[in-house]
Amino acid sequence: MRLRTDKMHKDILKRLNSINKPQRYLTEKLGVARSTMWRLGQGRDITVSTFLILADWLDDGIQDINKYIKK
Predict the structure, then answer these.
(1) At what angle do helices 48-58 and 5-18 cross, to 10 degrees?
(2) What confidence tens digit (pLDDT) does each residue in 37-69 have?
(3) Do 65 and 11 meet the contact criterion of CB atoms below 8 Å apart?
(4) CA dihedral defined by 5, 6, 7, 12, rounded to 10 degrees?
């Protein structure tokens, strides 16, 4: 099982664009390292705890966390 970090990164960028905020806003708000955002953009793995933090931020009542998991 692997995470679809590239898909998550695209969804993060969409949400940030919708609220007119840069990636730096998210790193400061959630305490996520800027290098984590870079890894997401490259499709690289991140820790499960960071994945859950980002998934929680993305959750607006519609998101399904399973769409970020490859089986």
Answers:
(1) 40
(2) 999 999 898 998 999 899 989 886 455 788 888
(3) no
(4) 80
Residue 14 structural domain = 2-63
Identify whether 26 is part of a domain. yes
Q: What DSSP designation does 61 have?
A: S
Pairwise CA distance, residues 40 & 22, whole Å: 15
**Distance separating alpha carbons of residues 47 and 27, to the nearest angstrom:** 15
Q: What is the DSSP letter of 64?
A: -
Whether 68 is covered by a domain: the verdict is no
